[in-house]
Amino acid sequence: MNFCPNCGADRIEKIIPPDDNRLRLVCQNCQTVHYRNPKIVAGVLPIYGDKVLLCKRAIEPCKGLWNVPSGYLENKESAEEGAAREVWEEALGKVEITGIHAVYSIARISQVYVHFLGNLIDGKFGIGEESLECKLFSEEEIPWSEMAFTSSTFTLRRYFADRKAGVTQTHLGNYPEEK
Amino acid sequence: MNFCPNCGADRIEKIIPPDDNRLRLVCQNCQTVHYRNPKIVAGVLPIYGDKVLLCKRAIEPCKGLWNVPSGYLENKESAEEGAAREVWEEALGKVEITGIHAVYSIARISQVYVHFLGNLIDGKFGIGEESLECKLFSEEEIPWSEMAFTSSTFTLRRYFADRKAGVTQTHLGNYPEEK
Questions:
Q1: Which of A10, A170, A174 is the mutation pick for testing B, counting most B CBs within 10 A?
Q2: How would you class A176 by CB atoms within 10 Å of its CB: exposed for 0-12, middle for 13-18, buried for 19 or more?
Q3: What is the CATH T-level fold of the domain A39-174, as seen in this structure?
Q4: A176 touches chain B (CB under 8 A)
Q5: How does pLDDT run across B40-85, given as a tens digit for each residue?
Q6: Chain segment A38-49, per-residue pLDDT in tens
Q7: Which of A121, B27, B53, B117 sits a CA distance of 20 to 30 A from A66?
């Protein structure tokens, strides 16, 4: 932030405002405090029979690697609306969300993933504009070494473990894991 | 946003950028797209014996009404770190988080609440700067008609129902509820 979005002055400084305990971007001209907060990445693991749908990313970061369909939640969306929208945008698939599977924080980059499980309706999907390829994988077929993000690996490993154990639960995760 | 935080020009317009499908704030001078995303409100329902800890808000909005200790997640925090921090700031209590209780979206105002359950360590608490009063309530004592936010009511009702049923689960909610 070079200029104050409120008054246009180039007097943004990182200071701790009165009644606060953190460094904030504060305009020294109009005194507006410009807060910055973590982003939510919403997604669904679409399930069809014993397979799950993954997308190969057509865009950076991690172009060419596989991912659980996910993306930044937009303003005026619920978490599940955003998650279902991402499945449509990335894989042209529609899902019926069945529950929350994971809340996975990456504090270093101020992201919180919210991953749902959902049934891929009629098993139908295509290839969205942000994807090079979309494909249903059985557990044995998952390309573990070609996953884009640790959030997807986290979600997939726990999904298959839960399925074996016959349970559904919501997992709390962090990167790095020992955090 | 009156001025571009990047170049300082007063030429911010709401347009749909190329390769996008939503209106964004775009600087017509430097072409920077300024994204806006929902905020995460993280909190914990602190539990001690058969009681839960609530805080009476000392600040607007909803000053004087009761709330599950919660607040905006900060950059570089995990969801559970932010949630535990809020219990400390609002009630001077320390919690051991035991699980995710609710993910509750209020799409209209672009907020997603993430509420955890946690054990209030040693039953100790005080009154944080943002609170007028902090108090342990049994189910019968909850001031239902004096709750600040629907997210707290959602979390409390489901907590007591789960406790009666002897289950722990993660609840997905929206305001308004019929959404």
A1: A170
A2: exposed
A3: Nucleoside Triphosphate Pyrophosphohydrolase (3.90.79)
A4: no
A5: 999 999 999 999 999 999 999 999 999 999 999 999 999 999 999 9
A6: 999 999 999 999
A7: A121
